């Protein structure tokens, strides 16, 4: 399992682009994790699924609301990672008004999630393999803080905790 001091696993994530530009085409675009994290401080939070109750009512809105404060604390980007496809993450981002604040990163086949060891098996609930709820502060691809929630909890991966950690880093 991923821990503080580890380098993020290499791999790819997808993001649905609403506007063509900066070398990105409209629609799903694939990004190399190593290239995206190089030289940056990134607040990453992951959750079990798009449109799920806690994720939609608390987790994403908290990061959207704290985006400016996180940037003021030196965070270059904020990522939301979920085991959903890029189309779903794009639609959810529109609904949550994340544009310019939180990058909605799709881990459609759970490859990144499996590589971190932070999987959550929700097969019994009809959702298959998902991500645990967590947050981490990553600097130049290296995990500096890691906040993993207990089953069914939302206590340590919130935007307020990440903001305090970003200020201290």
Automatic annotation (TrEMBL):
InterPro entries: PRX5-like, Redoxin, Thioredoxin-like_sf, Thioredoxin_domain. GO terms for cellular component: cytoplasm. Its EC number is 1.11.1.27. The active site is at residue 55. GO terms for molecular function: thioredoxin peroxidase activity. Gene3D superfamilies: Glutaredoxin. It catalyses: a hydroperoxide + 2 glutathione = an alcohol + glutathione disulfide + H2O. Thiol-specific peroxidase that catalyzes the reduction of hydrogen peroxide and organic hydroperoxides to water and alcohols, respectively. Plays a role in cell protection against oxidative stress by detoxifying peroxides. This is Glutathione-dependent peroxiredoxin. The lineage of its organism: Bacteria, Pseudomonadati, Pseudomonadota, Betaproteobacteria, Burkholderiales.
């Amino acid at each position: 399992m991923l821990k503080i001091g580890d380098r993020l696993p290499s791999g790819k994530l997808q993001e649905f682009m609403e506007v063509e530009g900066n070398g990105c085409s409209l629609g799903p675009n694939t990004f190399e994790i190593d290239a995206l994290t190089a030289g940056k401080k990134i607040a990453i939070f992951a959750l079990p699924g798009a449109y799920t109750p806690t994720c939609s009512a608390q987790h994403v809105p908290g990061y959207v609301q704290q985006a400016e404060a996180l940037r003021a604390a030196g965070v270059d980007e904020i990522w939301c990672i979920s085991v959903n496809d890029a189309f779903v993450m794009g639609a959810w981002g529109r609904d949550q008004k994340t544009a310019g604040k939180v990058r909605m990163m799709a881990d459609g086949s759970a490859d990144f999630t499996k590589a971190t060891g932070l999987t959550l098996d929700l097969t019994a609930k009809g959702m298959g393999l998902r991500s645990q709820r967590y947050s981490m502060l990553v600097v130049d691809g290296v995990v500096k803080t890691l906040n993993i929630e207990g089953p069914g909890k939302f206590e340590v991966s919130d935007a307020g905790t990440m903001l305090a950690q970003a200020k201290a880093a």
